[in-house]
User: Fold this.
Amino acid sequence: MLSKKTNKIQPVRGMKDLYGHEYKQYKMLVDCAVLAGESHGFSVMNTPIIEHRDVFVKSVGETSDIVSKEIYEFTDKGGDLLCLRPEGTAAVMRAIVSEGLTQSMPLKLMYYGEMFRYDRPQRGRYRQFRQFGFEHIGDKSPYNDATLISIVMNLLESLGVSGLSLCINSIGGQESRARYASEIRKILEPKISFLSHDSRIRLDKNPLRILDSKDKCDQDLCASIPPITDYLSDQEREYFANVCSCLDTININYSIDTSLVRGLDYYTDTTFEIKVDNLAVCGGGRYDNLLSEFGGPSVSGVGCAIGIERLFGLISVPETLRKIVVVIPVSDHDIMYAYNVFHSITGTRKEFIHIGDMKKKMQKANKLCADIAVIIGETERQSSTLCVKNMKDGSQEIVDSIGLMNIIDRS
Ligand code: ATP
Ligand code: MG
Assistant:
């Protein structure tokens, strides 16, 4: 609560205030992502921040970090076990079923908003963070996997994010994964004492997740495990090859990373991750059984989520093209007239400067980097005119209110 050093009230650990330049980047990303999504037929669906905890247990997986360690859960006054949503995909699937949208396949939905995970706070890792996500449900086809990836890659590039690298993999379906899981058990069981505490539990409950371990010893042990691609069925292998060909056709560079299993249980076939300098900025993949987990039809989908905070500092926000107009009454007698003029100005950024002497007012106009100053003294007030000063070259004109709007439009 109070910082010991400064004695100031602090936000909750891992949560930060969003304002200023970061807010501009957030807004820019959301606006551009919505436009990009809309041009591919996606529409926005924003679900509640609070969900029943069960929404994430079966879908994301009881043994996933998200559910086993990171979920913010609580029982409300009515005794319901709820949580702050840790991710968006499962919530969107829940909403498709709850809202009766299952008859309108295929569905292309996008969402943005706050997610909550009791993660270890560090740069780019918060306990409240924001994601933008796309979900394309229905029409299982490698084209849709590749298109989704290309939407995100193009979006990030158009926002000025450089150094993007895309890794993809296929983790097949349930049967292939079960075969692979038993192979991992066979290889790692004799070495169980060298595994980290978490991975010993994973070996029993969900061995694939060991491949995702950040522990160095676990990673070394994983080097002896053959790649998951060796265990895919012919059909799964062909599907993955087709996703890769689609990416080749549209000139999206990628590398195949056979250890990319992702931390959420619902993925089947394609998984992918986009990184900038080793920091994941987007993760996603295909999910064959997620909608049916929620009582919907057995329809496959593909989706991904972009971590908005991880892009802060990487997005270029163009300087506003809007002119800054300041309205300055010369004396207190001119304030009301000037205030009225100030309110009649539209379509531009404007400030009303009425405190201090003329020198102070002009200093403030300079500090705001004003393009145009509308100065109103007794003469202007008596003749219903305005003195318009171009702050860049110092020239002045006397005009009426229509003349002012013309000057704003052409400058
Ligand atoms: P990581 O391995 O970095 O923990 P993850 O696999 O948990 O990522 P996903 O659940 O796939 O991440 O979420 C998609 C994206 O959301 C990530 O690529 C990342 O950009 C962002 N993200 C995930 N967790 C956090 C967090 N705690 N703070 C900020 N952004 C996050
Ligand atoms: Mg994580």
